[in-house]
TrEMBL record:
Organism superkingdom: Bacteria
The keyword Repressor is assigned to this record: no
Chain ranges of the FAD dependent oxidoreductase domain: 5-393
Cellular component per GO, a single term: cytoplasm
Keyword entries, A-Z: Oxidoreductase
Keyword check for Metal-binding: no
Official protein name in the record: FAD-binding oxidoreductase
Short name of one Pfam family: DAO
Length: 412
């Protein structure tokens, strides 16, 4: 039976939810305070990460932890003032990263990630967005021979275990594949299953346009106004109040504010990240992660996009793009970057959960309310895959992947 459903948040996760529900015949209104795909889902590196079967865990070895605390290395940065408040959730993140628990999370995560490319594929075709997508994979590059050799061992093992396609390129093979590189890299793993997108925000906008063509409605409105309304929900929009039997919270890094107001204490936190484009005259053909310096170089429509690793800070604290400044220097070792395109870097926030699993399913204590957020480093990848899972749950069907690892009720 078709229902009226409000979807709050129009990033990759919310737009995919709206599409999946509309496709099933529901009357869906997608509500956001901004245009679709203009926040986190705009600013990422554009990877549809079929190889990401292992979510980012909290380091368990003291050498790495001490390196991060001492702020040596460019992959992680933090604001000391934010750490006290973050301590409980980070302690839980650390516990959930213990080998036995992490193994269970990998199994659950891999079961979802397996579907990420095929779930995107149908929407990319229907949205006419093939021009934005490359199917050639990406490069995980290393500067030191030792780190490269270690990764070759683990990557080939992961690839075998999860039936992933990867090629090992030594320094010479990498240079031959990407002649614009200045040289000096020990080698790279070429992950060949993932797809990459040259304008992530535009892909979300094309999905949103497809949703509208299929009869869905997009409205500007404030999710903070969500209120129970009889047996359903009501939200204020530019077009006045809108009511529906069901509502989905898909607010990415802002989900914690509304869920807290509704009385939920979920172990959510954010990892901020930055990007900037450069007018490089000669871009590498494939996106490249400099694994030892913690940044990605992604050839995009606006230029060569340099994205950074994780910054632990208050969501609203002023930007401190020190990782980007360092990445800019390191990236210049690898390529001719060219002049920055924007005057200031972009900043966004990855919506994270302490157990590294997105929150997908029925809100435990509210009728007709659904949660869909917490996709951390892989929300652009997983949006359509978890949207299908949520749509199947809303329709009371047997879901295509086991929903229990993602059930909001796991937090009580
Ligand atoms: C630097 C960086 C690189 C990344 N690279 C990748 C990558 O290569 N691949 C990948 O898979 N993931 C990547 N990610 C992660 C990915 O971008 C996120 O997981 C994903 O975009 C989250 O999508 P979302 O729809 O949940 O959130 P968002 O895209 O942030 O959408 C949330 C929406 O909620 C809206 N909203 C918030 N508050 C309100 C309100 N009160 N009322 C109405 N609307 C509201 C916002 O306007 C926004 O549109 C990266 C992230 C960063 C920061």
């Amino acid at each position: 039976m078709s229902q009226e459903i409000l979807v709050l948040g129009a990033g990759m996760v919310g737009v995919s939810t709206a599409l999946a529900l509309r496709h099933r015949g529901h009357h869906v209104v997608l509500v956001d305070r901004a245009a679709p795909g203009t926040e986190t889902s705009y600013g990422n590196a554009g990877f549809i990460q079929r190889e990401a079967v292992q979510p980012y865990a909290f380091p368990r070895d003291w050498k790495t932890i001490l390196r991060v605390i001492a702020r040596r290395g460019n992959d992680v940065h933090y604001h000391p003032g934010a750490m006290l408040r973050l301590l409980p959730v980070l302690a839980r993140y650390w516990r959930e990263s213990a080998p036995d628990r992490y193994a269970g999370t990998i199994a659950a995560y891999a079961a979802l990630v397996r579907h990420c490319v095929s779930e995107h594929e149908q929407w990319i075709a229907a949205a006419g967005a093939e021009d934005l997508v490359s199917k050639a994979g990406w490069l995980e590059a290393y500067r030191s021979q030792r780190a490269f050799d270690d990764t070759v061992r683990t990557a080939t093992m992961v690839a075998r275990e999860h039936a992933l396609d990867c090629a090992v390129l030594d320094g010479a093979a990498l240079q031959a594949a990407e002649p614009v590189l200045h040289g000096g890299l020990a080698g790279a793993i070429h992950w060949r299953d993932p797809w990459t997108v040259s304008d992530p925000g535009e892909l979300v906008q094309r999905y949103a346009a497809l949703f509208e063509r299929q009869g869905g409605i997009v409205r500007r409105g404030d999710a903070a106004t969500l209120q129970p309304d009889g047996s359903g929900w009501r939200v204020m929009t530019d077009a006045g109040p809108l009511s529906a039997a069901q509502a989905v919270i898909a607010l990415g890094p802002w989900a914690s504010t509304l869920t807290r107001t509704l009385g939920y204490r979920l172990p959510l936190f954010i990892k901020r990240g930055y990007h900037r484009h450069y007018a490089s005259a000669r871009m590498p053909s494939l996106p490249l992660l400099d694994a030892e310096r913690g940044f990605v170089l992604a050839p995009m429509r606006r230029g060569l996009r340099l994205t950074t690793g994780a910054e632990f800070a208050h969501h609203d604290a002023p930007p401190t793009p020190v990782q980007l400044a360092a990445a800019e220097r390191y990236a210049s070792d690898l390529v001719d970057l060219g002049a920055p395109v924007e005057a200031q870097p972009w900043m966004g926030a990855r919506p994270c959960v302490a157990d590294m699993r997105p929150v997908v399913g029925r809100a435990p204590r509210h009728r007709g309310l659904w949660f869909h957020f917490g996709h951390a480093h892989q929300g652009f990848t997983l949006g359509p895959a978890t949207a299908r899972l949520l749509a199947e749950l809303i329709d009371g069907e047997t879901p295509y992947v086991d929903p229990r690892p993602y059930d909001p009720a796991r937090f009580g």
